[in-house]
Amino acid sequence: IQNSNWIFRFTFLFILFASNLAFSQFKIPEKPSFQTSVYDYAKLLSESEKSQLEEKLIKYSDSTTTQIVVITIDDLKNEDVGVVATNWAHSWGIGQADKDNGVIILVAKNDRKLSIRPGYGVDDRLVAGICGDIIRNVITPEFKAGSYYNGLDKGADTIFQVLTGKYKGSRIQDNGEGSF
Question: What angle do CA 4, 7, 12 make, to 5 degrees?
Fold first, then answer.
């Protein structure tokens, strides 16, 4: 009787877990054939803002080989922003494969969440605490003031400073995620 009770519990938990994955998991879009640096699925930026940010990030990538990609979405479908950002970066292969030097900035508008996730090739400088500092002190104040563009633009500039060793931050322990 105890053995069948264990099997029932395991089966119930497995079905519960599997149904949770099936119904709430965020589906990452297919990697576009034409790649750029800003994917504004949530329509947070005007066309000129999107173009300016793309140009800045592409110039940075061309001069350093470090690819920074900004992605905005409406919502996370009950997923964790950091998990979605990490999975998206891996799925699309952001950064150079041999250097793993990509950085993804994911903004979920309706959930009011954002995450900065660096690849292993840059995470020695762009550590979780610094990412959290950038989110808290640079990006979020601009988002709260109503300007997604200014937040993302200043956030990108700060990431550039971090990667060149010119930014020190507050050194508060963080996980690189935040709310706005």
Answer: 125
